[in-house]
């Protein structure tokens, strides 16, 4: 009978520890987090800003 109690205690501690780790390391699921992730990815894909490149190209003279 003591072996069964030991297994129940070990299983309970394992489940509690697993749930605690899962809660600690889970990803946030708020709307703001999704927007922040999207903005961060858009900035990563955007070309680097170069001063003077926002002007239109000079007109060609023929």
Task: Describe, in plain words, how this protein is organized in 3D.
The protein has helices at residues 2-25, 31-45. With 62 residues, it is mostly helical. It is rod-shaped, with a radius of gyration of 28 Å.
Assembly annotation? single chain
Helix content: 55-70%
Largest sheet: none
Order of helices and strands: HH
Tell me, rounded to a whole number, the average pLDDT. Answer: 84
| Helical run tally | 2
Number of strands: 0
Structural class: mainly alpha
What is the 3D shape? Answer: rod-shaped
> What Rg is obtained from the alpha carbons, in whole angstroms?
28 Å
Low-confidence runs (pLDDT<50, min 5 residues)? none
Strand content: under 5%
Terminus-to-terminus distance: 100 Å
Summarize the model shown.
With 62 residues, the protein is an all-alpha fold. It has helices spanning 2-25, 31-45.
Quick tags:
0% strand; 62 residues; mainly alpha; 63% helix; 2 helices
């Amino acid at each position: 009978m003591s072996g069964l109690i030991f297994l129940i205690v070990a299983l309970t501690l394992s489940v509690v520890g697993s749930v605690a780790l899962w809660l600690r390391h889970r990803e946030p699921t708020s709307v703001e987090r999704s927007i922040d992730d999207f903005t961060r990815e858009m900035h990563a894909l955007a070309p680097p800003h170069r001063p003077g490149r926002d002007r239109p190209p000079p007109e060609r003279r023929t």
